[in-house]
Design brief:
4-stranded antiparallel beta sheet, Jelly Rolls, alpha+beta
Length: 174
């Protein structure tokens, strides 16, 4: 079996080349570097807009209660989103529905004076943001937890908000 693997590897090197193998190994190692992440999901809104009636819920599992966790909100918006900021609320609940945390937040997606968008972009007119909402949060018991988002803007439809998401990391002390 080992000879077959080595023969396959040498055939791969001859066909594709050592640089391609190096890039593959580098990419695989970079992917695995983020060992602190335990959950990362996004909810994409239909029609490229967030309706007030849409309240995405994210469910995740906590196994280790001896460590703290950092929870982040992810927002994806287009450059034609009409507001500089976004008011939203999150509700963190345990598996029995008990509310553990509830908070109204306001985050700027654009500079309120210049209109310059914040966040990172790859596509030019779509911007990704990540906001820390709970730092080094301690869950009392292992189990399933959920976090629900709702927007609290004055208009029912937020055109240009494409997605909202939740990322949960193990807290890494500085």
């Amino acid at each position: 079996m080992k000879k077959l693997f080595l023969a396959s590897l040498s055939t791969f090197n001859a066909a594709v080349g050592v640089p391609a193998l190096f890039i593959f190994v580098l990419a695989a190692s970079l992917w695995s570097c983020d060992s602190s992440r335990i959950y990362d999901q996004n909810y994409d809104f239909d029609g490229r807009q967030w309706l007030a009636s849409e309240e995405p819920v994210f469910e995740f599992e906590v196994v280790d209660t001896s460590v703290g966790y950092d929870l982040y909100t992810s927002i994806r918006n287009e450059s034609d989103y009409l507001n500089a900021n976004l008011y939203y609320e999150y509700v963190l609940s345990d598996s029995l529905g008990n509310v553990l945390e509830k908070k109204l937040l306001s985050q700027f997606l654009f500079d309120h004076k210049s209109g310059k968008p914040f966040g990172s972009t790859v596509l030019g007119d779509i911007f990704d943001h990540r906001f820390l909402i709970l730092e080094n949060y301690r869950f009392e018991k292992p189990g399933r937890y959920s976090l629900k988002y709702s927007h609290k803007m004055r208009t029912d439809t937020l055109k240009g908000i494409l997605a909202v998401g939740l990322r949960v990391n193990r807290h890494m002390p500085d």
